[in-house]
Amino acid sequence: MNLFCVGLSHHNADVETRENFAGHAETDRVLRSCGCSEALLLSTCNRVEIYAAAENLIPTEQIARCLTRTQVLELDGHLENFYRYEATDCVRHLFRVASGLDSMVVGETEILGQAKKAYEAARIAGAAGRYLHRLFQRAFRVAKQVRTHTDITRGAVSVGSVAVDLAQRIFGDLVNCKVLVLGAGETSERTVRALASRGATDLRVSNRSPERANALATAVNGRAISFEQWPEQCGEIDILITSTSSNVPLLSQEKLAPILRERIDRPLFIIDIAVPRDVAPDVNALDGVYLYDIDSLQSIAEQSLAMRREQIAAAEEIIAEHVAEFGEAILRGLNPPAQTSEHPAVGESSLRPSES
Amino acid sequence: MDRYLVIFSTVCFLVAIAHTILEMRAGVFQPRRFNFVAVALGFIFQTAFLSIRGNELHRCPITNLFEVIIFVAWSVALFYIVVGPAYRLSLMGAFTAPVVVLLQLFALLASIDQRHAAKLPPNSWLEFHASISLVAYGAFALACIAGVMYLVQERQLKTHQLHSIFYHLPPLSDLFAAITRLLWWGYALYTLGLISGFFVGEPLPWLQIICAVGVWILYGLILQGRYLRWFAPKRVAALCIIGFSAALTLLWGITFTAQTHTP
Fold first, then answer.
1. Fewer CB within 10 Å: N-end or C-end of chain A?
2. Is the Cβ of B195 closer than 8 Å to some Cβ of chain A?
3. Pairing mode, if any, of strands A36-43 and A2-9?
4. Residue A45 annotated as catalytic
5. What is the ipTM, given to two decimal places?
6. Which domains does chain A have, with CATH numbers?
């Protein structure tokens, strides 16, 4: 029995190629008709992979054909983009994928959910049997362990998520945070949506154009504030997101200091994503004010990514331990000595996936 | 022999520190469980020591500087065990352990475990006054530790330099809430200790009384300043460190005076 993985990913195939081989509803069935006893399709925006167990060696070309949406697609130009991992290499690859080590953004956790969904779909379809069941259950365990025992998922890696992460580091729970968005730009909308997704409910929008303020306020389920009134709001709010097209700073230390005297015990987090900046840099010197402009947010995102990369070695160690232990066990299961074989035929087990 | 219990306890806290350093170097710090267990184990050894010593003395074991320090260290660990998990202050164990180790190492290395030749006469008011004041010290010590954590976190947020530790420290608001609660606990217990001091029935040095009232006024001002918005949270955190340093100096002064005046 061969356990293998054939696939394409963002590392070696462009999005067009990945689209052409993204698989389809019948992929599992087609793969089994090609001779796979068990088969699972993992298709995400960054990768298309088949994990399979088969009695005989099934060529990569044949697997690639099962993934095409149109039978007329010529394989010649694309076949070299496919990678193939066998036995323990396949196990290692899946463990790395599930742990987010092979992702475009190292340490992202979405892939684990996608792998779980793919496994569930294959299980329900009866395409995942005892080998894939054991392989994927172990992969989920490994991913969890990597996430718990390393900092691979730590730190936000996009401007919006850095802002949200920082807000949580300052305020903890965002439910009671009052947020004011100054300027109705796209980035500020994304940031305020990210804050809302983490629990912030008191959202206020102010813009020179009242129509745009109203539109964004409606979109984020907040309320519009007239542009003349926004400075007064600084006494109340906890988070200020600014992204206006003003050529001069709208907020300076002189303006903010008297307002802060009334709220000295509450921090104020200012996210200035405007270029040129809306908030004078010396505002950060005020007690309790944490000012972040677009450069500092981007720099933190890069720091986080670098920190995640530093964690790869620790994550690889965990994976290597599991591969050594599990790879050997599953290979013994795949190719049991004839005299001690007590396992039912794999084809049979694949029809009863919930059994294992 | 009961000193071995203090040594075992110190080892437990040292293990917590070593574990933190090693994991932080490897970038795989998981503060919660291990540190909590190590500190809890250290606390059990401290309790065993105080219990044995108390049985031997037939009174609260705070008769010399050695016992007083262990009692304070015990109070610190007690408040960590009570407050740490409640406020999800996962890294507090890592900050608490060094304070306890420093206190206990000093107690073990300095020859301050001087037993009194004559048995001290029982005085329940004095014991209550001293023990409740020392428990208050535990709360002040932990407020000081939370203050250090606050300043570390605040500094990183201000300078935009976020190190690995940043992701393990609690949010500023949680830390400030913990500081406030600990200050209140400490202040209430200290007030109780101060009041009970007037019932001990023994003459106390005026300097001691003035210093003790001074510490009480200092913490009162910190709390007052916190609620009247005189100080920003950062200043409150810094004042907690100053306050505890002052309180510790006073404690040393009291025990030193008490020892030199004991026949």
1. C
2. no
3. unpaired
4. yes
5. 0.74
6. 2-153+311-355 (3.30.460.30), 159-304 (3.40.50.720)
